[in-house]
Specification:
P-loop_NTPase; 10 strands; six-stranded mixed β-sheet; ABC transporter transmembrane region fold
Length: 606
């Protein structure tokens, strides 16, 4: 229940609906009990066993409620039955129908009001989860499977929502039913009711033992669902590779092993969950059977009227439904608790990269970016060691080197996707840890090797940084990025949907859209992370031409494998194992005949 206490905090904005639900449930339980009690006068009229009461009884207070109701019914039957038995019977049946109608009206209203609370909580948790996911550092997702995060946002939250209804039934609706019913049963026969109360704790103990392992079993099911959802997501993303390497059978086998584990976990969970209803019903029947024996003896001994006994048994049997609901709700709470734990694990994850207290907005970039003696490691693997670099405004700096030398890590640290361990990165002398993330990233536009596009229109993808951008601004950005030449020929122009990850376009077209997005942002610092490495020669020429246009009058940090793209850079930094081994202009580095000269030679540029 500890996790649910925290989840219940999300219900505060909807507490008025919770209060209305409780009020409706009180009336539901009251009219439900009165419906059963109303059977007693009907039985008396049918069997003509009504005591004569010639004077209308007086109300003497709650302590006299049983005698008052009994005398009032007898008085009504005495004054009416003598005149017309059928009329009396019809009147009492109408009372039962009205009570049943009121019971169901309040039952519906209770569900009506609780719907706003349940769905509101569902929406708010999902919104907070999505916002949290958006703000968590990139490092979090290198350790988590995407499919597992998706399941937590969808299936786990859904289970929490379903458990909300269960917990409210557990706390309010069904216990009220039981309390009102037991109160009526006490009025009819305290002796029989004590007999019932002896069995209720025993039944509750047995049911709780059955549901003891539900939380851990539900966690296993949700984890496995997250695993095969990740496999599915990876399969859809890498379908070309899977088919190209004839790996269908291998992936299919992995997926089936996961779904087989899910099948086993789900079966165990369902078997245990399914025991709730039959167990509670069987225990209830045992109680009813005991009541028939014990109550029958009281009727035979003249200690209890037959009509009262029939009504009492109806009330006792009526307790079975709320008792089953409570058992089912307690199981739902245990399952929901497991899902709540998984959801709250994300919500409680501490974000190491966020605005510090007192962070300020960085002013417009004016002088230089300085990387001062920084050190960084991915987990325990050192990537950068005592790395320093000065990037004056308006210059283009290229970072080259073999894979794993730390080039892309520099881009990740400049944008604070990760934080440096030692040393500082400053913009115009201001530590980037002391400024707001939004103002820092407003200074930068990024073009990555993988063209990350969304299943939406070209206009939406290009105007990602400015939802108010005009069509003219979008078109101008596309022209600068050499993308207008193919966009203008599309059926709907800039309003054409480009499909999932932009898969309706070629690699070069997607990359030019990524450049157009950077153009529209018009940030003073441009980071190009191997923006042309995955392109064919023709596409590379078009993209490189677009990049040269974009880089004019901007501070550019270019990370490149293809050295043909950085020959005109103002400063080239050659990296090896996280350290600078050479730096200078293209001609200077060639004349040194060092590592850079060798890299150029391998790419047949000289």
């Amino acid at each position: 229940m500890n996790y649910f206490k925290e989840i219940l905090q999300y219900a505060k904005p909807y507490k008025r609906y919770g209060i209305l639900n409780i009020i409706c449930n009180i009336f539901y339980a009251l009219f439900s009990t009165l419906t059963f009690i109303a059977l007693m006068p009907v039985m008396k009229v049918l069997f003509q066993n009504t005591e004569r009461v010639d004077e209308k009884p007086e109300w003497l207070g709650l302590l006299d409620v049983k005698d008052y109701l009994e005398n009032y019914v007898n008085w009504y039957a005495t004054t009416v039955v003598d005149q017309d038995q059928e009329k009396a019977l019809i009147a009492m049946i109408i009372v039962i129908v009205v009570l049943a109608l009121l019971k169901n009206v309040f039952g519906y209203l209770g569900m009506y009001f609780i719907t706003f609370l349940r769905n509101g909580v569902l929406r708010d948790i999902r919104n907070e989860l999505y916002e949290k996911i958006m703000h968590l550092p990139i490092s979090f997702f290198s350790e988590k499977r995407k499919g597992d995060v998706i399941v937590r946002t969808s299936s786990d939250v859904e289970k929490i929502q379903n458990s909300f209804l269960s917990i409210l039934e557990l706390i309010v609706k069904e216990p009220l039913n039981v309390i009102f019913t037991l109160g009526a049963m006490l009025l009819i026969s305290p002796g029989l009711t004590i007999f019932v109360l002896i069995f209720i704790p025993i039944s509750g103990f047995i049911i709780s033992r059955i549901g003891k392992k539900l939380k851990s079993q539900s966690t296993d099911v949700q984890k496995e669902q997250g695993y095969f959802t990740s496999l599915l997501e990876e399969t859809l993303s890498g379908l070309k590779v899977i088919k190209g390497f004839n790996a269908e059978d291998r992936l299919n086998n992995t997926f089936q092993k996961s779904t087989q584990r899910f099948y086993k976990f789900s079966n165990v969970l369902q078997f245990r969950r399914s025991m709730a209803g039959p167990t509670s019903e069987f225990l209830g029947i045992c109680v009813i059977s005991g009541l028939f024996w014990f109550g029958g003896k009281m009727v035979f001994g003249g200690d209890l009227n037959g009509e009262y006994f029939v009504s009492y048994m109806a009330l006792a049997y009526g307790i079975l439904t709320p008792a089953k609901a409570i058992a089912k709700a307690s199981y739902g709470v245990k399952e929901g608790n497991a899902s709540a734990e998984r959801v709250l694990e994300i919500l409680h994850t501490k974000n190491e990269i966020e605005d510090k207290e007192g962070a300020v907005s960085i002013p417009a970039f004016a002088k230089a970016v300085n990387v001062n003696n920084i050190t960084f490691s991915y987990q325990d693997e050192p990537v950068l060691k005592n790395f320093s670099l000065n990037i004056p405004k308006g210059t283009s700096v290229a970072l080259v080197g073999q894979s794993g030398s730390g080039k892309s890590t520099i881009a990740n640290l400049l944008t604070r996707f990760y934080d440096v361990e030692n040393g500082t990165i400053t913009i115009d002398g201001q530590n980037i840890k002391d400024v707001t993330l939004k103002s820092l990233r407003d200074q930068m536009a990024i073009v990555t090797q993988d063209s990350i596009l969304f299943n939406d229109t070209i206009a939406t993808n290009v105007a990602l940084s400015d939802k108010n951008a005009t069509e003219e601004q979008i078109t101008d950005a596309l022209k600068i990025a050499n993308a207008w030449e193919f966009v203008k020929d599309l059926p709907e122009g800039i309003h054409t949907n480009i499909g999932d990850s932009g898969n309706k376009l070629s690699g070069g077209q997607k990359q030019r859209l990524s450049i157009a997005r950077a153009v529209l942002k018009n940030a003073p610092i441009l980071i190009l992370d191997e923006a042309t490495s995955a392109l064919d020669t023709e596409s590379e020429r078009l993209v490189q031409d677009a990049l040269e246009k974009v880089m004019k009058n901007r501070t550019s940090i270019v990370i490149a494998h293809r050295l043909s793209t950085i020959q005109n850079a103002d400063h080239i930094v050659v990296m090896k194992k996280g350290e600078i081994v050479e730096q200078g202009t293209h001609s200077d580095l060639l004349s040194k005949e060092g590592l850079y000269h060798g890299l150029v030679g391998m790419q047949s540029l000289v």
